[in-house]
Amino acid sequence: MVALTTPEVDKGWKAEEFNLISVDGNYYDLDEVKGDNGLVVAFICNHCPYVKSIVDKIAREANELKELGVGFVAINSNDSISYPEDSYENMKIFASEHNFNFPYLLDNTQEIAKKYDAVCTPDFFGFNSKLELQYRGRLDSAKKDIIPDAKRELFIAMSEVAKTSEFNGEQIPSIGCSLKWK
C-alpha cells in the first residue's frame, strides 16, 4: 500500500461532466447529483484501509450535507481486475453494508478519475452551486485513526460553501491509497 496525498486545491476549477452507473443500476450525471448549494465528489473504493476506517463517517457527512442542500456522490475508479474487492458486485455490498444514501458510481474506464486528477482513495472535491471547486482536502482531522471528536473539515468547509458559495479556510490534503490504474 502506497499512501499518497492530494495536490493543492485549484479554486474555481469547474466540475467535469460524467454519466456513470451506480450500485442501484441507474446512471447518474453531474446535474442529477448536485444539490442546490453545492456538491461533493468523493473518489473511494471498497478495499482501501483509509476508506474503510472512515466509510461510516462518509455516509454520515453525506446525509448531513444533504440537509444543507449539498449533493454527494462517490466514484470508484480502481482496476477491479487486479483488485477484485473493488468490483461492481462488491460495490453493491459495500454500499449496502454502510447505508450509502447517495449514488456510488463505477468509473470502469477510469476516464473520470483522470479528468478530476484524482490521486488517492479517499479524494474529496467540494464544489459550490456553480460547480466551482472550493475544497479539496481530507474528511476530518482523524486521518485513518478512530478519533470520536475529530474536526469535521469537509463538513465545515461545505457548510460554509452552502451559505456563502466560497470556502477560504485551511485545506489539508487528503491521504490514502493510490488509485489502482489499469
Automatic annotation (TrEMBL):
<dbReference type="InterPro" id="IPR013766">
    <property type="entry name" value="Thioredoxin_domain"/>
</dbReference>
<dbReference type="InterPro" id="IPR036249">
    <property type="entry name" value="Thioredoxin-like_sf"/>
</dbReference>
<protein>
    <recommendedName>
        <fullName>Thioredoxin domain-containing protein</fullName>
    </recommendedName>
</protein>
<dbReference type="InterPro" id="IPR047262">
    <property type="entry name" value="PRX-like1"/>
</dbReference>
<feature type="domain" description="Thioredoxin">
    <location>
        <begin position="9"/>
        <end position="144"/>
    </location>
</feature>
<dbReference type="GO" id="GO:0016209">
    <property type="term" value="F:antioxidant activity"/>
</dbReference>
<dbReference type="GO" id="GO:0016491">
    <property type="term" value="F:oxidoreductase activity"/>
</dbReference>
<dbReference type="Pfam" id="PF00578">
    <property type="entry name" value="AhpC-TSA"/>
</dbReference>
<dbReference type="InterPro" id="IPR000866">
    <property type="entry name" value="AhpC/TSA"/>
</dbReference>
